[in-house]
Design goal:
The chain is an alpha/beta fold. It is built from 8 helices and 10 strands. The protein has 2 domains: 4-105, STAS domain (Transcription Regulator spoIIAA), CATH 3.30.750.24; 116-261, 2-Layer Sandwich (Heat Shock Protein 90). 37% of the residues lie in helices and 23% in strands. β3, α3 (61-76) and β4 form a beta-alpha-beta unit.
Length: 266
């Protein structure tokens, strides 16, 4: 088994900060060692990490799951993990597995598609905002932009907005792919309501329903150990919001309800 010095170089840059440069290896083959290295730094108080990704042009799902879990731990301790030197293929691969807005890439992790229609939104407490969209991959971006703009106006902070963005993305993608089987003739509706200190998001569709609650809990550690890719979307959704519920009615449709607290600690 390769030692830490064989898989990465750690450059310390002051108290609590370090840059990690991967060795000339395929990092997908050394996920356990990389996890131990990064987790060890975080446990010892080096919680602001910069990870050079120039040696990881195709990070797999296990590698990405590891980063998501460690980023959450670093942020819990007041730090973060920032990715730099990203190849275009790596960015595309992160988009494919959709944890992109959970991670800080370069100096700006916000790649939201904000269209002109968002300028007309005046989001106020107690007034429902909604948008009906075609069930296509392209429309998923409109859905996330719509929800994040409402969240911004309600005062949700940047990191929590990133989490909400990816939860809505994953949920809408599930509707497009599994609910409708990529049928572009179908539609979905997104509703956002501001109720006191919470945002309530309802995602409606009239396609195939699924058992939201029977899905097993997604264990990040086990996932990258087993190189397992399935289940990541539901894991992200459930960890990104404060509460959720799912209902299915043959007449009314399927509805995934997500609730997000606007201010931490309220």
């Amino acid at each position: 088994m390769a030692g830490n010095e064989e898989i990465a170089t750690v450059i310390r840059e002051g108290t609590g900060r370090a840059t990690i440069r991967l060795a000339d290896i395929d990092p997908n083959q050394y996920i356990d060692q990389l996890h131990d290295l990064l987790a060890g730094l975080i446990r010892k108080g080096t919680c602001r990490l910069v990870l050079s990704m120039d040696k990881a042009p195709f990070p797999n799902a296990s590698f990405i799951a590891m980063l998501v879990g460690l980023t959450r731990e670093a942020r819990r301790r007041g730090g973060d993990i920032r990715l730099i030197d990203m190849a275009e293929t790596a960015t595309g691969h992160l988009n494919q597995f959709t944890p992109l807005t959970y991670l800080t890439i370069g100096d700006d992790a916000e790649h939201l598609i904000i269209s002109k229609e968002l300028d007309t939104i005046d989001f106020q407490p107690g007034i429902l905002q909604s948008i009906t969209l075609g069930a296509t991959i392209e429309e998923v971006n409109r859905a996330t932009a719509f929800v994040v703009e409402c969240a911004r106006q309600a005062g949700l902070d940047k990191i929590e907005s990133h989490k909400l963005n990816i939860a809505v993305y994953e949920a809408c993608l599930n509707i497009v792919e599994h609910g409708y089987g990529f049928d572009p003739e179908k539609t979905m509706r997104v509703e956002v309501l501001w109720i006191e200190d919470f945002l309530e998001i309802n995602l409606w569709d009239w396609g195939k329903s699924f058992d939201f609650y029977e899905k097993k809990y997604y264990d990040v550690q086990q996932a990258f150990e087993e190189k397992r890719e399935g289940g990541f979307g539901l894991f992200i959704i459930k960890r990104s919001v404060d509460s959720y519920s799912y209902s299915s009615d043959k007449e009314k449709g399927n509805c995934l309800n997500l609730r997000k607290r606007i201010k931490e600690g309220d």
